[in-house]
Structures
1.
Amino acid sequence: MRIQTLAGFAALAIATVSTMPPAQAQMYDPKYPVCMKVYQGYVDFYMECGFTSIPQCQMSASGRNAQCIVNPYYAGPRQRKQRRQRYY
């Protein structure tokens, strides 16, 4: 009985793992509005998202095979919750 239960859990775990989509790395950091695309070869590149403005990114990209782009996944500044004013 114990072996059947263990086999059932193992089969369930295998079925769950095999149906999950593959994990993908996030290319853009949603905390920063500007990213720099740095080219390493003809088609190979990587992204550096850590810039708050286009001029800041352009200063870093100067002299490199890179270009600055606006981050399409920028979440914007955090919005503060508005406190409800209490009337007594």
Note: The two ends are 66 Å apart (CA to CA).
2.
Amino acid sequence: MNPGLDNLQPYPFERLRKLTANLQAANLSPIALTIGEPKHAAPEFVLDVMREALSSINQYPATAGSPALRETISHWLKQRFNLQGISPEQILPVNGTREALFAIAQTLVTPGSPGRVICPNPFYQIYEGAALLAGSQPTFVAAGADTGFLPDFGSLTSEQWDQCELLYICTPGNPSGAVMPLEDLQTLLKLAEEHDFVIVSDECYSEIYADEAAPPAGLLQAAAAMGNHDYTRCLAFHSLSKRSNLPGLRSGFVAGDADVLAAFLRYRTYHGCAMPPHHQAASIAAWQDEEHVYANRALYREKFEVVVPLLNPVLPVERPAAGFYLWPSTPTSDESFAVELVTHCNVAVLPGQYLGRAVNGINPGANHVRMALVAELAQCVEAAERIVHHLKTG
């Protein structure tokens, strides 16, 4: 057995199920604010394209994806991030960013030594699992309130950067929604050049943001602004799951350094993870259209505009710059608060400590909960009203 398997911690939702398994929930319809699974309707025109393309299912797809899909993604990247150009060799379609974020560590990391992978804390648990199963113990960088929930990369030493082979970042961040400024991304790019590591930027929340005039910056955009049009040491990961409400399509891409992607393609060819042809056709349709994405942002914007003022009198909630999570601190421990909300409100939230790890006795996710505003507006409002009523009267 791979010894890294013994070090894998239970997934956050598994821990939540165990925490709440024997609770007597309030006699109200359950509302889950836990999993970041979009509940808005999938674009019907994308589903129509996929149905029409089912005849291609009798063909083996290329691991590199079709030229049409890569050209479509290239056009989207140039428009969205103001890039001068990006070639098909700098783009690789993947079956959702989750599997690719895991697999990239298997390609880049030399096994047998700790510190090869650096990632934020709290974090998407795939980063940790990828590091462990690649044979390395990750280094965690706190992303707490004192840094605006951005990772405190300034706390790392030169020796730690020298050890690093892969740096995971998430912008907009999960769980806080904090967006890394372009200047911060460029600082990391300079460190990557100095210490020779690859930056893996998880940007799957990049298309859900508050201000239409200020979309979040991306890693490739930061590189291009520095004159790095080869995107050396840069890999940006994007997905249709959140952007287009298509989590079950399992469609995304990674773009950036062509040399790194050539090695990743070789790995993926053996791994056997080519995107099905009808999924590729649907993806082309989704990446070519922005109207449904604008409408999607408007739905989330409406939920934040209603829910945040409702909760503010009883919980310190702030509307995030991007993403669809609230990340409030809790009046009691995060686990106790989650239990309390199920017991009295039948509203499920995710304890923040499950998304972080204790370093020197401090878990920066502790005493926060993550609330995913993915349900329809009426359900989100009802959940907020139940929480407010309980905290005011309980």
Note: The chain has 14 helices and twelve strands.
3.
Amino acid sequence: MSAVSTEPASGTVRPRDVLLGGNVLWLAIVSLLTDTASEMIYPLLPLFLVGTLGAGPAFLGLVEGVAESASSLLKLASGWASDRLRRRRPLVIAGYGIAAVVRPFIAFAAAPWHVLVIRFTDRVGKGVRTAPRDALLADSVPPAMRGRVFGFHRAADHAGAVIGPLLASALLLLLGGRLRPVFLIAAVPGLLAVLVLTLRVRETRAPPAAPAPAREPAAAEAASGGASGLGAPFVRYLCVLGLFTLGNATDAFLLLYANGLGVPATAVPLLWGVHHVSKMLWNVPGGALADRFGPRPAIVAGWAVYAATYAGFAFATEAWHAWALFVGYGLFYGLTEAPEKVLVAAFAPAHRRGAAFGAFHGTIGLTTLPASVLFGVLWSAFGPAAAFLTGAAIALAASLLLALVVPAPAELRS
């Protein structure tokens, strides 16, 4: 029978016990296996679409944008559903299962639109699982440890993203550079992830909503405003996040550009793996910084790093520039991935946390389509430098706005 408990109190357990036990550990293993499967395919996908199937940069942007944006509505719905049902685990299992089954069918794609359909279905699975999974993690740990927990989870995810490209590179060498068998073999770690999830992850429920106390009219209006009652500050956070994401196109463009700078196709998975090593090393320190100083300063710094990295790509001319920039790009993820989720959990009451994470991921997903299409169109019309510089400018603007218009949640001020 699945264990059920209310949200733990802060300071009752040691950090090591939280990170290496229970749902935190098993969900980390699930993410490691899932990303191993996904990243055996993802860094090769731009080369497969453009080189094998004859698609162009604009279609690559369309594939990634549609895939991510299509999942955004499901993230909203699944987060809301997990709050209503007060059960997150079934949705998490369903989401990982859909992706694990459909992803390897890329091996049989004969036209670019086949890849679009498969990526769409894969992202449907991600849309179903992501908000309930993040809410389950937040429900399972003390509030004071959320930064480290989300950082640990993302570090495991990136460890899988290191293993996946290494496996892909080894298989490419063994298989004479053939991409399709690599895509097919990626089914194995994906299915293992679903097995671990089904057998080991347990339900942990947040407490039900308490009856709302009487409020003055102004306070009541503020508390019920925006994002289904999650509050106006949270809505401002989502708006600024949406602006940043508008300049954050799919990383597939970075891989395609690196190949154009002289990184050979056989080394692209290794480049992607090095990038994920950087992300993995920075995620836990980034989460710890959010626990110590609050998430907003870390996010502001991370978005500034993103702007500097994109500006660097705009002026890169050699293959080694791509390697250096991909390593530095990992710092952006380390400073933002866990802190962004800590900020969501702090804004949301426990009984609305699924909906809050759904709104967070949904905002990113809905903005990904115009971001990727915009980047692809700018690349095609004016060249890659214009696309990268536009993304850098948008990131800088979002970084300033986050510091100026989004207040720290009450939980983080106490």
Note: The CA atoms of residues 172 and 178 lie 6 Å apart.
4.
Amino acid sequence: MTAVELKDARLSFAGVVRSEWIKLRSLRSTFWCYLIVVLLMIGLAALVASALPTDAGAGGAAGPRGAAALPTKPDATWLLVSTVGVTFAQLVIAVLGALVVTGEYGTGMIRSTFAAVPTRLPALAAKALVFGVVTFVVTFASLVVGALLAAPILDGRGTHPDLGDSSVWLALVGAAGYLTLLGILAMAIGLLIRSTAGAIATALGLVLVAPIIFSLVASLTQADWPRNVGAFLPSGAGGRMYAFEPTGGVSHGILTLDGWQGLLVLAGWCVVAAIAGGILVKRRDA
């Protein structure tokens, strides 16, 4: 075969995307993780809506045993109920994002992938594109179904959400975007570490452990800087992407990001981790 024929035989980017799609849907972990996400999103939305006290969203009624007051706006309560599953789904998406990369390293399939795409970076871009699109579609659809299921339940309990409120639907898009970017960040961490256990531990540490540490330091020291640093963590920035009224600013020394700032911060995490991972992939052996 001549050099020209070899060049023509290489996969196009569309072909690489198709191959990544086949690999993603062939993994058992993909099916089970997405199924768990769907059940969490929809099930928790319905469960929490059913458990709220009557008129809970109409006047900021406190929860049982003096729990924090719910939002005073019915639509804010509706959004809170519809996105309650995000807290748990983010852990599943982070694990799946890490597995998408480290699973190939563990089985040795990554060698075949890089043999088909010698430049390597297009394969990584295709992998992120496929995983990102599928994750966004699955999570957004689950959020919408959960919201539509919770709305009549809340309406029957005295909280009357407005189905035409664009703030709620935009926030649902933001929640799906947050989960998608978090999964891509976990993928990039997987490229950096190449170990399933290490990548999952690091991703979950950023999502779970780091916010707790900064919150604990803030409580012990009564300082503002730990809370301000926590606002730039992936979970802190991502949480602003699906806030009902994501306004930002500084109040009493505490920084709050708005929705777009939260998006830019989380995207920055993804870009930095992806660039570092891409550099290492180019330099290291598969």
Note: The longest helix spans residues 121-156.
